[in-house]
Amino acid sequence: MKILSIESSCDETACAIVEDGRKIISSVVATQIGEHKLYGGVVPEIASRRHCENIVGVCEEALEKAEMTPQDCDAVAVTYAPGLIGALLVGVSFAKSLALSLDKPLIPVHHIKGHIAANYIAHSDLEPPYLCLVASGGHSHIIKVKSYTEFETIGKTLDDAAGEAFDKAARSMGFPYPGGIYIDKAAKKGNPARYKLPIPKTENLYDFSFSGLKTAVINLVHNSAQKGEAIDVNDLAASFQHTVCEILSSKFIKSALDNGYKTVALAGGVAANSGLRDCLAKQAEIHNLKLYIPPISLCGDNAAMIGSQAYYEYLSGNISDSALNAVASLKLS
Fold this sequence. Notes:
Elements: E1 2-7, E2 12-19, E3 23-31, H1 33-36, H2 44-66, E4 75-81, H3 85-102, E5 106-110, H4 111-122, E6 130-135, E7 140-145, E8 151-156, H5 162-172, H6 179-187, H7 211-227, H8 233-258, E9 263-267, H9 274-286, E10 290-292, H10 303-315
Parallel strand pairs: 1-4, 4-5, 6-9, 9-10
Antiparallel strand pairs: 1-2, 2-3, 6-7, 7-8
Helix pairs in contact: 2-3, 4-10, 5-6, 5-7, 5-8, 6-8, 8-9
């Protein structure tokens, strides 16, 4: 089954054609990072307008690379939640029109489910049940993947997501948007023990909190500037990244052990962070856990992951019609 999938939840306009949930036939992503970098973050109105400009061309390119026509696709899938509402509406409106004109099934996909499904493309042997850590600019969740379409969230961020904390801490250090990649590069040259940063506490041991940690970095930078003291940016980046990775990995590994999971997975944009990948790999080896991590190309927002999850949604009977609407905030379960 070949599914044409569309992703437009934030600032990437993406289209892919995926076969049977596991094989990418083609995948195209048009990013807006260069433009949003001018403002230090994503501007929703600009993102929506660029999606309108890009979506037709992106889909045409995906079909051309696949050497297919729209009629050759068996279904159309789209991210409908969660995300920036204006951005989502562009993708949902386009997908509904395309599915209607082709008389093909329309498959709605939750964005977080898509991130999890990126692992199915990368790892043909991965099957539920397993435990997944989803860490991105907008999400930080620990999720029980009970089946391809049944999920349970047992831990989540209570304030900022890990990726958001990376970007805002990076801005205070003088790095451009998106800051996560710059912190990752600087951390490799720094001393992670140089700066002592707080580890926020949560009532639920599996929940996360990054607001206080982010604020501690911002205050450290501002206070040092006021005193005329120099900050070693590489050391601060290393200290911050080490703290975030320790928080994510320790809570995730504990939740896996407490709940009896031997198979675990990582997903989301922050899954591209080398510190987190290394930290989880070491912890998984210590505790004899089988760890699955997608390649960096599938960590950020893309339509291939949406096409993968859409296949399993279709098999479970999750098919929508022209009444489908975009939803800015929607729980996974």
